[in-house]
Amino acid sequence: MSAPLSHIAIIGGGTAGWMAAAALARVLDTKAIAITLVESEAIGTVGVGEATIPPIQAFNALLGIDEAEFLRATKGTYKLGIEFVDWRAHGTRYFHPFGTHGVDFGAIPFEALWQRARMAGAAAPLEAYSICAEAARLGRFQRPATTGNNPLAHIGYAYHFDAALYAGFLRARAEQWGVRRQEGRVTSVERASDGAIAGVVLEDGARIAADFYIDCSGFRALLLGEALGIPFEDWGRWLPNDRAVAVPCALGLEGRTPFTRSTARGAGWQWRIPLQHRVGNGLVYASAQCSDEDAQALLLSTLEGEPLAEPRVLRFRAGRRARFWERNCVALGLSSGFLEPLESTSIHLVQAGIARLLEMLPVGGGTPADIRRYNRLMATEFETIRDFLILHFHATARDDTDYWRQLRTMELPDTLADRLAIYRASGRLYREADELFSKTSWLAVLHGQGVDPIGYDPIADGMARDEARTRLARIAEVTALAASRIPAHDAFLRESGAMVE
Question: Which InterPro entries does this UniProt record tie to the protein (predicted)?
Fold first, then answer.
């Protein structure tokens, strides 16, 4: 029988490292299982991921974090979804909301009734049925209602925040709960006779030995990639962007909108993420189609306020490690893979890895069955998110640059091709097992990118057309009224105690 864990070493800090440290320390008895995090102040972090998706609420709740305190500490704002500008074609825009579109009617899904009505010219625009889309358009926010049968109960939200401040916020809690931080740069990794990691040696000669290791060393993947030799699966043929340039700027006239904006550009896309004290901006692009100098010039020319720092250029590859858990080591964050930040999934993938690690907490280094299951689940997580991201780039009418022409004609993964074929034939949407993105997300992006079905799901005929038309009209009417009555976003931040004054 394997010995129980007595020491977990986390190699690397940043958002991923301190998320792991805080979660483990919150759940485990740190007097029985020591947790050491090794990081070097001399090694910078990527630290530009400032937008999240709703599952982060569950992670913060696990840690017992008060929302207002968290937002003050990270200078955060609320997020109801993402606005996409110029993606389908120049001059177009659509909104990918959190929450839901409309409501299902028993076994008849909302989208089936809406597609049938849309084809007959009897439906409102899709966003009229989303409380998050309507509130975002008005610059308003509130938390979801917990009582009553009204659209306010269907609000879904996440956050924008300063990732470096979030890491520091988590570090304070993790250290309070017993995590020991070790300053230093890892210079070598020792292997045991069975191939497992035996220890790491720091530049000052100190040696850290543990039963289990978590690799949060960033793109380098010091443990999983370099020491254990797990190869990287490159997804550049589907997601060719391999650079990002980021720069914060002062808040402009638009202010603290409760949503992220993504604007398609000639060789990539640009993000706008409003925080309490500034705006995070970045341009993600393919270096084969755009030089670093041109990317910086474009980004700086489109800022709404004065730049607050020098632009930073980041290099990356889209893809994942062939395995995420090998022997006595799990990789989290950039060490495990990277999917560009179009749908704000980077922090979620860290969270998903932590959640599954807690579910399969190893005895010793972990059983082979646990390791296989973890790797299978995380591979599926990455691949379903990958397919959703590819959809944005492939389903477009844009042909104004080589970049867009290549993307719209690329060969798709079979999983995405099948999903598109089903939707185009019937408008039918589905969610595989517990995949991250819901039918609401798929419908918003499919319709927003111009993918409309030639037929509708026949289950819609279970409701008479006149009755469906009346119900849809009522949903849109009540949604608009509810959105008009909730507070302005800034007012809610102040009244809830989340704003740093």
Answer: FAD/NAD-bd_sf, Flavin-dep_Halogenase_NPB, Flavin_halogenase, Trp_halogen
268 in a known ligand binding site: no
Q: Say how far apart CA 89 and CA 398 lie, in whole Å.
A: 5
Q: Which helix (H) or strand (E) holds 94?
A: strand 93-97
Q: Which helix (H) or strand (E) holds 7?
A: strand 7-11
Residue range 19-48, pLDDT digits in tens: 999 999 999 999 999 999 999 987 655 445
Query: N- to C-terminal Cα distance for the chain?
Result: 57
CA–CA separation, 380 and 172 (whole Å):
33
Establish whether 347 is an annotated binding residue: yes
For 215, the enclosing helix (H) or strand (E) is strand 212-215
Query: Is 175 marked within a binding site?
Result: no
Give yes or no for a contact between 326 and 224, defined as CB atoms under 8 angstroms apart.
yes
Residue 75 annotated in active site: no
79 assigned binding-site residue: yes
Q: Report whether 170 belongs to an annotated binding site.
A: no
Residue 15: closest CA among 275, 274, 333, 244: 333
Q: Which residues of 20-48 are buried (b: 16+ CB within 10 A; e: fewer)?
A: bbbbbbbebebeebbbbbbbeeeeebbbb
Q: Is 14 annotated as a binding residue?
A: yes
For CA atoms 276, 389, 107, 481, the dihedral sign is positive
DSSP letter for 198, please.
E
In this predicted model, what pLDDT tens digit does every residue of 319-374 receive, in sequence order?
Answer: 999 999 999 999 999 999 999 999 999 999 999 999 999 999 887 667 899 999 99
Residue 487 DSSP symbol: P
Selected catalytic residue, list 31, 75, 79, 439: 79
The answer to whether the beta carbons of residues 336 and 321 sit under 8 Å apart is yes
Q: In angstroms, how far apart are the furthest CA atoms of the chain?
A: 77
Cα angle for residues 481, 482, 484 (degrees, 5° grid): 65
Q: Residue 49's closest CA among 260, 249, 235?
A: 260
Give the integer Cα–Cα distance in Å for 267 and 149. 45
